[in-house]
Design a protein that fits this description.
The chain is an alpha+beta fold and 227 residues long. It is built from seven helices and seven strands. The radius of gyration is 21 Å and the shape is globular.
């Protein structure tokens, strides 16, 4: 058998090319070369469920010679960028001019919807680009409860632009990743695109709330059907 967390993580295409041999509590991956080792490690780490990058890494250290720490940290940065988790380690500079009230609005939005027990959440507002764009918002939240055998993350990205009529528009995307492994090993990962809609400076977060609630309602309906 493979280590518990890896069992559901190895992509089939890689798993078929990999032979795991367990002997005296030691596991060896038999593959073509070191470059293939590193490619497999990278795939596994980038596929880590929320809050389990280091758990997967420890399993991998049992499977083969430890990859270089510098290389591991590069993959960690790639993982944080891919999942949006880098938002937890960034801060948005306070600007004196904030015509849409995004900074205060994001703080209120997080306090209202992402302040539950055990939840880590942060946001980044980027207004450093042009070409018709006003700004982008990255919001990331996670709740990691590995001792209770579950973890989940929510990544939302919103782009605010102006259309040809100089009217504000917002579009976005949300990615939900949940993992439960108390009785079995189940992962849910879903991505929802939010189409562009016209807004005003006063209802940015009203629109975001509408999208969030719509996604939650869809998931609730799905869970009800499964149960």
């Amino acid at each position: 058998t493979t280590p518990h967390h890896l069992k559901s993580q190895i992509p089939n295409s890689i798993y078929r090319r990999t032979t795991l041999i367990l002997s005296n509590r030691r596991t060896i991956i038999m593959t073509d070369s070191t470059s293939v080792h590193l490619r497999i490690v990278r795939e596994l780490l980038l596929s880590s469920p929320p809050g389990q990058f280091d758990v997967i890494l420890e399993d991998l250290r049992e499977l083969l010679s430890s990859p270089p720490n510098e290389w591991i940290e590069k993959i960690r940065m790639e993982y944080n960028t891919l999942t949006g988790r880098q938002a937890l380690f960034q801060t948005t500079p306070v600007k004196s001019e904030d015509p849409l009230g995004l900074q205060e609005g994001m703080k209120l939005h997080i306090d209202k919807y992402y302040s539950g027990k055990g939840v880590q959440c942060n946001y980044v507002i980027d207004s450093s680009f042009s070409s018709g764009s006003v700004c982008s918002i990255l919001l990331y939240a996670e709740r990691i409860q590995l001792q209770q055998f579950h973890a989940g993350s929510w990544t939302a990205k919103y782009n605010i632009t102006k259309n040809d009529n100089n009217i504000l528009c917002i579009k976005g995307k949300a990615i939900l990743h949940a993992h439960a492994f108390e009785n079995g090993n189940v992962q849910l990962k879903t991505t929802v695109e939010f189409p562009s809609v016209e807004i005003t400076s006063k209802n940015v977060f009203q629109q975001i709330q509408i999208w969030d609630e719509s996604l939650v309602e869809s998931l609730t309906a799905m869970y009800d059907e499964i149960s």
